[in-house]
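Tokens for chain A. Residues wanted.
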């Protein structure tokens, strides 16, 4: 990607020096602790987990593990008993990642400010929070197992840059555009919050059984993939951000984090009724729809479903 030298966003909050400690659970947190071994086996993770709190309204985080927890019927509440600051020690590679994330966020701002203006609307830019190990959001306390997530309650994107190592090594999706796709997807969830889609989906899911609710979750995630494609289309057409091979990197990332692919890796078989993000084929399809159309109106994954 041709990102170096481009504008950086002023909406990046660096909390990497903050250290949250002593998580305590309630209202189901203890049940989560007892089920950690099963959860780790399901996700193929070792030693880290995100704890999610429902903070009023529809305040569940939008992201991988936030949806995965619902499979086990868990909505634990966690608290932070203390936080402390520590000096930021970063390698040259991590410093470059910080710059990269800031530039990509700024580029999403360019796209969505323009598209919202065309619709006579004002785009409210989200904040991107950098953290290490653990972070407190309005949606609860999170550790860094699943990397980026979006919290609709505070309208912020959270990312531990260590996730990009997982993306490259565990998910076999290297490349700067694959990294950018992840940010664009989370910003897609912000678009859904601004447009009222997230609130409608949450309300609709509360009236459905788990299987039907999961189907709505899949449609919401696929729409975020499509919106990421819309961003990529505009970034390339108006600012020539993409280089040869970038699109393939994005498609590889979309495919690598499909529910079917992840389930095969973690449990050896696929359970479609438990999908919360969509299959690899679906994620690639909707990313390409957004990429080829450049039109957010093309991202109606819900079709004629009335939310």
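Reply:
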């Amino acid at each position: 990607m041709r990102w170096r030298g481009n504008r950086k966003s002023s909406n990046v909050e660096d909390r990497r020096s903050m250290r949250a400690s002593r998580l305590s659970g309630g209202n189901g947190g203890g049940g989560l602790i007892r089920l950690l071994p099963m959860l780790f086996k399901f996700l193929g993770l070792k030693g880290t987990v995100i704890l999610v709190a429902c903070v009023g309204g529809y305040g569940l985080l939008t992201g991988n593990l936030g949806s995965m927890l619902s499979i086990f019927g868990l909505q634990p509440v966690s608290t932070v008993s203390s936080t402390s600051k520590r000096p930021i020690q970063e390698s040259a590679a991590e410093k470059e990642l910080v710059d990269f994330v800031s530039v990509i966020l700024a580029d999403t701002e360019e796209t969505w400010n323009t598209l919202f203006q065309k619709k006579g609307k004002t785009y409210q830019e989200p904040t991107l929070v950098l953290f290490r190990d653990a972070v407190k959001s309005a949606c609860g306390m999170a550790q860094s197992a699943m990397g980026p997530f979006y919290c609709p309650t505070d309208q912020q994107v959270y990312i531990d840059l260590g996730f990009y190592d997982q993306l490259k090594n565990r998910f076999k999706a290297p490349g700067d555009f694959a990294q950018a796709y992840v940010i664009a997807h989370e910003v897609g969830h912000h678009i859904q919050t601004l447009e009222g889609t997230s609130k409608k989906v949450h309300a609709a899911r509360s009236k459905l059984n788990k299987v039907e609710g999961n189907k709505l979750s899949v449609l919401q995630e696929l729409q975020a993939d499509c919106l990421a494609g819309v961003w990529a289309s505009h970034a390339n057409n108006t600012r020539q951000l993409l280089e040869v091979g970038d699109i393939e990197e994005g498609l590889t990332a979309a495919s690598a984090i499909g529910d079917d692919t992840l389930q095969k890796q973690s449990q050896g078989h696929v359970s479609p009724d438990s999908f919360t993000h969509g299959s690899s084929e679906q994620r690639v399809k909707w990313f390409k729809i957004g990429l080829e159309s450049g039109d957010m109106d093309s991202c109606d994954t819900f079709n004629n479903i009335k939310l």
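The CA atoms of residues 15 and 131 lie 5 Å apart. Confidence is low (pLDDT under 50) at residues 22-61, 64-82.
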